[in-house]
Design a protein that fits this description.
Strand order of the largest sheet: 2-5-6-7-9-8
Order of helices and strands: EHEEEEEHEEHE
Helix content: 25-40%
Number of domains: 1
Shape: globular
Low-confidence stretches: none
Distance between the termini: 41 Å
Length: 163
């Protein structure tokens, strides 16, 4: 199995997959990883309740770059509709991190730009806890994330509770 990569170099092609690649196992997750997955699922279910079929949760993608084949799975993708002309990619984290920006900008963005070449892509790190040491461009509310008038490429949404 190939080592996980967070940066794409020289993307040749990309495509959405019907299912998870067969060789990727589903290990039992515990502790902090499990808490992170529970948080991601809560966010995904909430977004799906609001936007329905436009929401892809756990969609797998295959791509080829200079280093060969690769696979990635963004947490949540919200596709465009009549009111919203952009794709929204949400990466859910228990704690704000710079790693999320690298993952969103250098892995998911190139793949989605290859698949949806004419569509603006906005990326949001959704976090349960903030890190005071990180300088983050914060979006105030979930409505701001989906607002067509708001202009940003990457931002962070502090979303501790969904109420």
């Amino acid at each position: 199995m190939q080592k996980r990569r967070n940066i794409i170099r020289g993307l040749r092609w990309a495509k959405a997959l019907e299912d998870k690649p067969r060789f990727i196992s589903s290990p039992r997750i515990k502790g902090i990883q499990r808490a992170g997955l529970i948080y991601e699922n809560r966010i995904a279910n909430y977004i799906k309740a609001l936007y329905g079929e436009e929401v892809l949760h756990g969609q797998w993608y295959e791509y080829e770059d200079r280093r060969g084949l690769g696979w990635c799975q963004p947490d949540i993708i919200v596709l465009p509709n009549d009111d919203r002309k952009f794709i929204l990619v949400l990466e859910c984290k228990l704690k704000a991190t710079r790693k999320a920006w690298v993952q969103l900008n250098y892995l998911y963005r190139p793949v989605l730009e290859k698949i949806y070449p004419q569509v603006e892509i906005r990326m949001v790190q959704v976090v349960k806890n903030l890190d005071k040491n990180l300088k983050l461009d914060l979006v105030e509310t979930l409505d701001d994330v989906f607002c067509q008038e708001q202009k940003f490429e990457y931002s962070t949404l502090f979303l501790r509770n969904l109420t």
